[in-house]
């Protein structure tokens, strides 16, 4: 077990979510699946309680804690992409699997977990500062999924 692990709260679908993530993103894998040793408020003995998994190199744990806690945008995974093809791949996987689009490269998966699908060109433009960053930022503010060509055009002015 990693020393620092992100714990994500799910109603009952931690294993399903972990399987989706590990099949979607490279450098991802399933770990241990732990079952409840006894009944608990939102589950029964033998139900999947905790799932260990890695998403894009980040150690995670999914907890089937019931419906008391909901995901918010206060936590998100940010996935850096190299080009439009990779951006489309991850965006479409999340949104097309029951997720929802949002603004500025953000989307939510079907379990309510927020994702930022962020082309490196956007972060490079923002890091450049000045007028280039402002143009790229203004372009991004009009987008749901990030359009790499539009960001590149904005960088050039």
The CATH architecture of the largest domain would be: Roll
State the shape: elongated
Task: Give the CATH H-level superfamily of the largest domain.
Answer: 2,3-Dihydroxybiphenyl 1,2-Dioxygenase, domain 1
Number of domains in the coordinates? Answer: 2
Order of helices and strands: EHEEEEHEEEHHH
Poorly predicted segments: none
Please give the number of β-strands.
Answer: 8
Discrete helix count: 5
- What oligomeric state do the depicted chains represent? single chain
Instruction: Kindly state the percentage of residues in helix.
Output: 25-40%
**Largest beta sheet: strand ordering:** 1-4-3-2
By CATH, the topology of the largest domain is 2,3-Dihydroxybiphenyl 1,2-Dioxygenase, domain 1
Query: What is the structural class?
Result: alpha/beta
What is the level 1 CATH name of the largest domain? Alpha Beta
How confident overall, as mean pLDDT? 96
The major pleated sheet works out as: 4 strands, mixed
Keyphrases for this structure?
four-stranded mixed sheet, single chain, 2,3-Dihydroxybiphenyl 1,2-Dioxygenase, domain 1, alpha/beta, 2 domains, 157 residues, 5 helices
What does this structure look like?
This protein has 157 residues and is an alpha/beta fold. The chain folds into two domains: 69 residues, 2,3-Dihydroxybiphenyl 1,2-Dioxygenase, domain 1, CATH 3.10.180; 87 residues, 2,3-Dihydroxybiphenyl 1,2-Dioxygenase, domain 1 (Roll), CATH 3.10.180. The strands form two sheets. A four-stranded mixed beta sheet has the order 1-4-3-2. A four-stranded mixed beta sheet has the order 5-8-7-6. Strand 6 and strand 7 form a beta hairpin.
């Amino acid at each position: 077990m990693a020393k620092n692990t992100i714990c994500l709260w799910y109603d009952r679908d931690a294993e399903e979510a972990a399987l989706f993530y590990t099949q979607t993103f490279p450098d991802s894998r399933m770990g241990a699946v732990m079952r409840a040793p006894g009944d608990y408020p939102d589950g029964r003995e033998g139900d999947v309680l905790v799932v260990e998994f890695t998403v894009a190199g980040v150690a995670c744990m999914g907890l089937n804690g019931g419906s008391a806690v909901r995901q918010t945008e206060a936590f998100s995974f940010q996935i850096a992409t190299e080009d439009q093809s990779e951006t489309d791949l991850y965006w479409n996987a999340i949104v097309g699997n029951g997720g929802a689009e949002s603004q500025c490269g953000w989307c939510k998966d079907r379990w309510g977990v927020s994702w930022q699908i962020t082309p490196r060109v956007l972060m490079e433009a923002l890091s450049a500062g000045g007028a280039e960053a402002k143009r790229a930022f203004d372009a991004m503010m009009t987008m749901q999924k990030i359009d790499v060509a539009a960001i590149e055009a904005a960088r050039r002015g």
